[in-house]
Write a structure and sequence with these properties.
This protein has about 200 residues and is an alpha/beta fold. Helices cover about 40% and strands about 25% of the residues. It contains 8 helices and 8 strands, in the order βααββαβααββαβααβ. α1 crosses α2.
Length: about 200
């Protein structure tokens, strides 16, 4: 596979090139070694594409996972506690997990445990590879990458998406680079407030 497009938000790419050039080279290597044809194994049951061979999200995800893990990337998880008191949440959301729970229980509210998880982290760089539902991309950009950046776990987040030319050979509802590029641009230059690199890939 190859990279068909990149977009740097809040100097995400510039950060990589200056501070983590080897990480960026590794990401490009993972993509270039991916054989898209080997994952065109899903037989469509959709009416408009019945019987057509499509790229399999499950097979692609597994291949990317193996490729990144082999190179020392790992999953990262951040636990936190929530409740229904907005003022309290604003005050404690950057506190350590244990302190969040104590503060919530101290006012007699229920402390509800939650977490954010990202697939691949290495050298303070997070990567999400998204072949799922298009709505998941917004969650990655505005929740996952943001939360890890706010928690000082990462310095930049990378979102890898299929280009439209590849999305046409996948089931309906899959995200594609060009649409999510617009979704970022129309938020304005400072939103989301985390350095990002959007990467579009194609066969």
């Amino acid at each position: 596979m190859e990279i068909g497009g990149t977009y740097s938000h809040l100097n995400g790419m510039e950060y990589l090139l200056v501070h983590q050039p080897s990480v960026w080279e590794e990401i490009k290597e993972v993509i270039s070694r991916m054989d898209a044809g080997a994952h065109k194994t899903k037989i469509s049951k959709e009416q408009t594409m019945a019987g057509k061979k499509l790229h399999s999200p499950g097979s692609l995800n597994k291949a990317f996972k193996e490729a990144f893990y082999t190179r020392g990337w790992s999953e990262r998880k951040i636990d936190f506690w929530v409740t229904d008191d907005a003022k309290l949440l604003r005050r404690i959301y950057q506190s350590p997990s244990g302190e969040q729970r104590k503060a919530i229980e101290a006012i007699g509210s229920e402390a509800i445990k939650s977490y954010n998880q990202t697939d691949f982290v290495k050298n303070r760089v997070a990567v999400e590879v998204q072949f799922g539902e298009y709505a998941f991309v917004a969650h990655d950009l505005f929740v996952k990458h943001m939360s890890f950046f706010t928690a000082d776990e990462i310095d930049v987040g990378i979102e890898i998406l299929p280009m439209k030319i590849m999305e046409r050979e996948m089931s309906s509802g899959v995200p594609y680079y060009e649409r999510d590029l617009l979704n970022i641009i129309r938020q304005g230059r400072g939103v989301p407030a985390v350095p990002l690199v959007l990467v579009g890939i194609k066969p």
